[in-house]
Amino acid sequence: xxxxxxxxxxxxxxxxxxxxxxxxxxxxxxxxxxxxxxxxxxxxxxxxxxxxxxxxxxxxxxxxxxxxxxxxxxxxxxxxxxxxxxxxxxxxxxxxxxxxxxxxxxxxxxxxxxxxxxxxxxxxxxxxxxxxxxxxxxxxxxxxxxxxxxxxxxxxxxxxxxxxxxxxxxxxxxxxxxxxxxxxxxxxxxxxxxxxxxxxxxxxxxxxxxxxxxxxxxxxxxxxxxxxxxxxxxxxxxxxxxxxxxxxxxxxxxxxxxxxxxxxxxxxxxxxxxxxxxxxxxxxxxxxxxxx
Amino acid sequence: xxxxxxxxxxxxxxxxxxxxxxxxxxxxxxxxxxxxxxxxxxxxxxxxxxxxxxxxxxxxxxxxxxxxxxxxxxxxxxxxxxxxxxxxxxxxxxxxxxxxxxxxxxxxxxxxxxxxxxxxxxxxxxxxxxxxxxxxxxxxxxxxxxxxxxxxxxxxxxxxxxxxxxxxxxxxxxxxxxxxxxxx
Lengths: 292, 184
Ligand SMILES: [Zn+2]
Known about the structure:
Strand content of chain A: 15-25%
Helix content of chain A: 25-40%
Bound molecules: zinc ion
Structural class of chain A: alpha+beta
Subcellular location (chain A): Cell membrane; Membrane
GO molecular function (chain A): sigma factor antagonist activity
CATH class of the domain at 200-291 in chain A: Mainly Beta
Helix content of chain B: 55-70%
Keywords (chain A): Cell membrane, Membrane, Transmembrane, Transmembrane helix
InterPro entries (chain A): Anti-sigma-K/W_factor (IPR051474), Anti_sigma_zinc_sf (IPR041916), RskA_C (IPR018764)
Pfam families (chain A): RskA_C
Radius of gyration of chain A: 27 Å
Structural class of chain B: mainly alpha
Largest sheet of chain B: none
Oligomer: heterodimer
């Protein structure tokens, strides 16, 4: 095969798959580099192979693969400044510091690491990477203290599990908050008592994924043995679906993060009722907050 | 939402994301990963048949994008297609425990598909599978052995007892059928 003759198309396919002996491979590489026609033919063969590659059975990579990559990416940070800065995605978030912790255990954990910054600002939208870094810290501890007392190891391992689970949850939160298909609903108290401050809730819901995040403020304290319960009211007229119970803290703030919900239910509205402790499967009237 | 003025990263095309990656934007990198990690991982898993090794390839291929995004912009080819082929090549290298043969960044790739779009990508995959499954079995097996198992035409000829020329022709015919079916 000389450099003056064009490459057989059969050989181009083998060349593209890097299956030819070294010398033959080198000859073809030299020809292709200076022959536009064969270069184009090779690009087409590569395109065919790309299509063929996509016929493989698809498997999702393990969840930690992305964290691993992003950790390495962060480690090999580029010197170019990034113009996009982290802005809190909701004006609602960050107004009252460190209060929306329910359901995301990492909030408390992260606060230990860096007490000065507001939890919400940290969590949105960079929480995934913050948690990944926290995992690295914990893993490092585990390594260096491997001779420490067994009880201590167990405690740390438990914490690591917790952080990993939180990382997955945090990723889901981040995706839901930034998903263009997300439905954002503000729930306000049904008009009857105009005395401020008015209880307010905000639901972010991605029907396709069944992902729901609900944040509430100015919630009135509950009587003993009572709980607030959030309801998803399906658009197709089905019965309301319980979407988690919650108790406000002493400042009236509460949240429901990623309650277990079926996927693909379009929501007509969201509502909140007061139920007996433990929650209910059907809402007890009245609906004290609603929004759509 | 905070980013009201720009479309979400998930809706941006590969070139825009690569431009961001070039500027060191980690979120753009994450978006590319979300878009293409599945195919890269699946190809590597098929070749190596080992999840841990496949994950290493996945990591390696995407780190290459992070380190030198310029290479991809220059080819003006399809990033998704490129990643799939590179995943295969790297996996074969790992299988044979040899150094990469080419500076893969230089590889040009002509593909008429917008693999950045998930719906289009899925549609293409379905069609390609449909075409491959209808190939004569010798053609299908030969291409599979060459591409996914990294067997040379001599090795395939030895295993199947077919003449070398026949093996080469089968590979070529299978790829030609695939291309023509998409052009139709
Ligand atoms: Zn030529």
